[in-house]
Write a structure and sequence with these properties.
The structure holds two protein chains of two kinds. Chain A is of the alpha+beta class. Chain A is 35% helix and 10% strand. In chain B, α2 packs across α5. Chain B is globular, with a radius of gyration of 26 Å. In chain B, β16 and β17 form a beta hairpin. Chain B folds into two domains: 121 residues, Rossmann fold, CATH 3.40.50.10070; 260 residues, Neuraminidase (6 Propeller), CATH 2.120.10.30. The longest helix of chain B is centred in the middle third of the chain and has 17 residues. Chain B is 14% helix and 42% strand. The chains are: A alpha+beta, B mainly beta. The interface between A and B is large, with 77 and 85 residues.
């Protein structure tokens, strides 16, 4: 009498083994669904999304307070003459006394000097009685005429522009023609949580200056409708000469 | 599965979300903070350093840091990158550092200069510069130009010279001085002499003079010998010579039959050619840097305005439309701007620049005396002009954005009509 010995049977999981039951076709269905989902995720946004209204925001500027200037007249200076206008007859050379041993200023002394300098500059600054603007404008306005658009981005531009300073020692050709692109990501409180230079200028002086401009800028909190966009997608800034 | 779908959709949507874009232009240019460490060695080193400091200050390229704020002891830290504690220079805001050591051998002063890049703690430039003690200032000018080139890759202008008209008890005389107003040399001594212009090579000046007693005509003076020769004596008067960038011809204004026009002449002599033929007065020619066009002043439309034309007199274009008295155009070495003086509604002349392409006018001076006769430095980063802001008319320099005005002459009777000379060796 011979006994039947156990035999290993290899079956395809997809073969409809009675012990597996419905799992085989189910797996096929699952894979098909995954493919469908990925395809939908890829193609649906392209079909459904419309160009975002904020892709190219128009910047808003505050209009300066003043009388509109007759366009037939030669323009006024855009800013007041610097205090250095009353420079001495011969350029001042470093003081002889300065060649002595250096003394480290205390924090208190430095603060006092800085405050005295700021106060002096404030006293020296005279408002231009002929400043061009609009009679209904704002004392803090920066433009002579109005532009309409997304106010938040206008404020972002103004604040970054205030720190957009490049060093004088870069060549004129580079200063006039180089450009760079930086993407900043703005938190709900207005903090710049990250910046990425996506297109460097090619000049390290300028790139350093742009990074410094971003780091020095303090932005207001974005409005609720923009908060997620500027946090997740960021805001692309094209720096131009 | 539902969760997977949402995640995938979110990922897909995020990848495609529209990122807003803004453009920011109009960067402010800020002078580069530089520390000039007190020099070691012979006392002449301090004199050289003072000249260098004045050059840097006037250039607008550098912001000199106050030596009283220095934390490092320059005498102790040496002058090599390995011994300098750059953190102390960084702490006072320095981006660049100059060190110098001077010594005297006979009548020669030698200064060992070194320029350091503070953020990178490295040496950028090193050299020994020497000159007779009488020409001490040239040491500073030479090193200063090398520093400018090291940063900007452009030539510096500290070794250039400026021609101008000096008021004397014997009338207006032609003079030249260094770009900082020092070492003036008077080249003429009689009559009334006006409007100096540098001739090609920089060894002679053309100027207008009444010396023949029959109206102003053009003469030239050799800087070395001070010998004066007639250049153009045609017409009732001939004045305001300006030489083409290629140095083979010059334009000037001349009056014939009571009509003043712009004329063109080969520099070697020969037939002159009239470029303008309007009923009005056409004067004050200025060449574009490519030598293809000439800016000039004309009152053909009723008031003096700036125009440009091709060098055969064709393609005349009006450039200024604001104001009712614009004069003295000076085309910038880069070609983008024309500086001019214009009379505003207060009937005071001030300096302006007009963009040749856009026609946009910017103002450089305002509410500080009368400001006239702009002339560009050959690198286009400075202008020289005359101003009454400190009393008598004197020469001042200013940046093309209207900042950093600096007085460079202090002539007792006044100075005017400046013409900035070419780069050394040009």
């Amino acid at each position: 009498m011979t006994e039947a010995r156990p035999q290993t049977v290899y079956r395809s999981l997809l073969g409809g083994d009675a012990r597996i039951g419905w799992l085989g076709p189910g797996l096929l269905l699952a894979i098909a669904l995954h493919v469908l989902v990925v395809a939908a995720a890829f193609f649906l946004p392209r079909l459904l999304d419309r160009p975002h209204a904020l892709r190219k925001p128009v910047i808003a500027h505050l209009v300066a307070l003043g009388k509109p200037r007759d366009p037939q007249l030669l323009p006024r200076k855009e800013s007041e003459p610097p205090a250095a206008a009353s420079a001495p007859a011969k350029p001042a050379a470093p003081s002889k006394a300065a060649s002595g041993p250096p003394r480290q200023l205390s924090r208190q002394e430095m603060m006092e000097r800085a405050l005295a300098g700021a106060a002096r500059r404030t006293q020296d600054e005279k408002p231009d009685p002929e400043r061009a603007g609009q009679e209904t404008g704002s004392p803090s306005g920066t433009a002579a005429s109005a532009e309409e658009g997304e106010k938040y981005f206008g404020e972002v531009e103004d604040r970054i522009h205030a720190n957009y300073v490049v060093p004088s020692v870069i060549s004129e050709r580079e200063r006039l023609y180089l450009s760079a692109t930086v993407v900043i990501y703005i938190g709900r409180d207005g903090s710049i949580v990250k910046h990425v230079m996506t297109k460097p200028s090619g000049n390290s002086f300028i790139d350093q200056a742009l990074v410094l401009a971003i780091q020095r800028t303090r932005l207001p909190a974005p409005p609720a409708e923009l908060a997620r966009l500027v946090r997740d997608e960021g805001l692309e800034i094209n720096f131009k000469p | 599965m539902k969760r997977l779908l949402l995640l995938a959709l979110a990922a897909g949507t995020a990848a495609h979300a529209q990122r807003p874009t803004i453009d920011i232009s109009g960067a402010r240019v800020q002078a580069y903070p530089i520390a000039l460490a007190p020099p070691s060695g012979a006392p002449d080193g301090s004199d050289v350093m003072d000249v260098l400091a004045a050059d840097f200050d006037r250039s607008g390229l550098f912001r000199l840091l106050d030596p009283r704020s220095f934390l490092a002891d320059p005498a102790k830290e040496g002058s090599s990158a390995s011994t300098i504690d750059f953190s102390k220079w960084t702490a006072v805001g320095a981006q660049a550092l100059v060190k110098a050591a001077a010594k005297v051998e006979g009548d020669t002063v030698k200064v060992d200069f070194r320029l350091f890049d503070v953020p990178h703690a490295s040496e950028m430039l090193r050299g020994e510069y020497s000159a007779p003690r009488a020409a001490l200032r040239q040491i500073a000018h030479r090193f200063g130009d090398d520093v400018v080139r090291a940063f900007t890759q452009e030539p510096g202008i500290f070794q250039t010279r400026i021609a101008y008209v000096r008021e004397t008890e014997n009338g207006k005389q032609i003079a030249v001085a260094d770009s900082d107003g020092y070492a003036p040399q008077q080249l003429t001594s009689g009559s009334i002499n006006l409007l100096p212009a540098w001739m090609p090579g920089g060894r002679s000046l053309a100027f207008s003079s009444f010396r023949n007693g029959a109206g102003a005509h053009l003469y030239q003076v050799d800087l070395a010998t001070r010998a004066v020769q007639p250049l153009v004596t045609m017409g009732d008067f001939a004045t305001g010579a300006v030489f083409s960038p290629d140095g083979i011809r010059f334009a000037f204004s001349a009056s014939q039959a009571e009509n003043t026009d712009i004329w063109l002449s080969p520099i070697e002599g020969g037939a002159v050619r009239r470029l303008t033929d309007s009923r009005g007065i056409d004067i004050s020619a200025s060449w574009s840097p490519d030598g293809k066009r000439i800016a000039f002043v004309s009152d053909r439309a009723g008031s003096p305005q700036i125009y440009t034309m091709a060098i055969d007199g064709s393609d005349v274009r009006r450039v200024t439309f604001q104001g009712n008295y614009n004069q003295e155009p000076a085309w910038s070495p880069k070609g983008d701007l024309i500086a001019f003086s214009g009379r505003d509604e207060h009937r005071v002349f001030d300096l302006y620049v007009v963009n040749v392409q856009t026609g946009k006018v910017g103002r450089l001076t305002q509410s500080e005396g009368t400001n006239e006769k702009p002339s560009w430095a050959p690198n286009g980063r400075l202008l020289v002009f005359s101003s009454t802001r400190s009393g008598k008319k004197q020469l001042w320099t200013i940046l093309p954005d209207g900042s950093n005005p600096r007085q460079i002459t202090n002539d007792p009777r006044g100075a005017s009509d400046a013409a900035w000379g070419p780069l050394a060796g040009k």
